Amino acid sequence: MRPLDPRLVRRSRGVRRLLAVSVVLGLVTAVLVIAVAHVVAQVVARHFDGEPVAALALAIAAGLAGRALVAWLHTAVSARAAATVKAELRHEVVDDLLDPRRVGPRPSSSRVVALLGPGLDAFDGYVGRFLPQVVLSALVPPLVLVSVARADLLSAIVLAVTLPLVIVFLVLVGLVTKDRIDRRWQALERLGRHFADVLDGLTVLKVFGRRQEVGLREVGDRHRRESVRALRLAFLSSLVLELFSTLAVALVAVSVGLRVVEGHLGLGPALFVLLLAPEAFAPLKRLGAMFHDSTAGAEATAELLALLDHDRHDGSAAAPDLRRSEIVLDGVVVRHEGRSAPALDLAHTRIRPGEFVAVTGPSGCGKSTLLSLLMAFERPTAGDILVDGVLLSTIDPVAWREQIAWVPQVPGLVPGTVEDNVRLGDVLSARADVVAALRDAGAAELALDRVIDESGDDVSAGERRRIAVARAVLRVRRGRASLVLLDEPTAGLDASREASVLSTLRGLDVTVVVVAHRPETIAAADRELRLATRLVDA
């Protein structure tokens, strides 16, 4: 695991500012450390010689005060930078998820909650403390080593040999703890997902009397055990770091002491070396102590950057009129990472204007993937999608989707009334149009003023689908949509309501593509497009 991901530096202006300030303050810290050690050594040496040292004592106080001031300033800047970076990344993730030019599947809500909540909270340790300490560890030891070399070359050689051992051990700690870090982060993600899923289905679980205390306790205990194991490893690694640095300083102290006694080294340079030797290891020891505190933030950083690292639509061409345009899927193949078989494999398919096409096939054959391609949510791995001879990838996705009415498997609802949710298709439509759309979607019994909360738990799955179908119908009738994409719109509906929905779809006089399993929906279509499951690589 790298201490600093270059993608974070490129994306976050706050991190770039923090690193620049840390370099400046790190250099100032190194200079003050060396200066204070030099002055203290001179004070002691001159005191033994009987010289006045009052002025130098004041210089020591000023130097120590300067170090404290720089340390406080570094802490304050780092804390502000951590807060700024968290705000930047939260806004960037939200903007990315809402960006119409985003390509690729959306992450689950539980994953987003875990990343933007506990994940970004760990940035205080990662950005606020660990990254500044990385800069100090890179700047202070080399400057201290050069200063020691000017005073005593032998001591500098001892430090130059032992310092890399500490660095090597830090690397080994990172390699050994990587598995622990991954397991702890996975346990935290699992806890967040489990809790979010329980909250989402709390109403249903209570209705059926399913208690979740045991499951939540087990997931929480798993996270606790992984955290304790990580802490145990952190304490052991800190002990070994202290041992290495103490032995190195002891070697320097013994060498310097013997040469002072024999008269080969002056008292002033010897004290200077003794005071600086621990300072060469201090930044590395603090870095090792902060390493484990930073791991959750580093993992969250990698997850967030992976979430933001995806393709975007760059098309800007005007969208063809779908009322007169033919859609051609020519050799379209979609492959998802981690799957050996393609998610969708179509040799050649045409969808003509005004055609009602029922997309069928076994589970996993790519029916929903086909709708995602037509919505420009995904791009084909191979092959082309042409609209009136124009590549879909070159068309502005916002202009393209303005001509589409989409009903997914789980339609989205907004807080408000039933009328508000239907009007999402066209906010300027008359109330009579909304009533007609609901009636033709088999939802005439739904009161327009019925309030729907944010979660939509107070409506059934069938009511949710009929509201979404009414929304699509309203868009078509108001001339806002010329292509209707539906994913199982009649699932959960009784026969009479299903017949009403299918009759309405047949009479829309626009292109309709519907994912279907029920024979009534397939029979109502002009044509069946049957997809097959591919079990092996093409």
Describe the 3D structure.
This protein is an alpha/beta fold. The chain has two domains: 6-308, ABC transporter type 1, transmembrane domain (ABC transporter transmembrane region fold); 327-530, P-loop containing nucleotide triphosphate hydrolases (Rossmann fold, 3-Layer(aba) Sandwich), CATH 3.40.50.300. The protein has helices at 6-11, 13-48, 54-98, 109-121, 123-151, 153-200, 202-207, 213-261, 267-308, 367-374, 397-401, 418-422, 431-440, 461-477, 495-506, 519-524, and strands at 327-334, 344-351, 356-360, 382-387, 390-391, 404-407, 416-417, 451-452, 483-487, 511-515, 527-530. The strands form three sheets. The chain has a five-stranded parallel beta sheet with strand order 6-9-10-3-11. The longest helix has 49 residues, at 213-261. The protein is elongated. The mean pLDDT is 82.
Question: What is the strand and helix layout of this fold?
Answer:
Layout: H1 6-11, H2 13-48, H3 54-98, H4 109-121, H5 123-151, H6 153-200, H7 202-207, H8 213-261, H9 267-308, E1 327-334, E2 344-351, E3 356-360, H10 367-374, E4 382-387, E5 390-391, H11 397-401, E6 404-407, E7 416-417, H12 418-422, H13 431-440, E8 451-452, H14 461-477, E9 483-487, H15 495-506, E10 511-515, H16 519-524, E11 527-530
Helix pairs in contact: 2-3, 2-5, 2-9, 3-5, 4-6, 4-9, 5-6, 5-9, 6-8, 6-9, 8-9, 13-14
In brief:
With 538 residues, the chain is α/β, with parallel strands linked by helices. The chain has two domains: 6-308, ABC transporter type 1, transmembrane domain (ABC transporter transmembrane region fold, Up-down Bundle), CATH 1.20.1560; 327-530, Rossmann fold (3-Layer(aba) Sandwich), CATH 3.40.50.300.
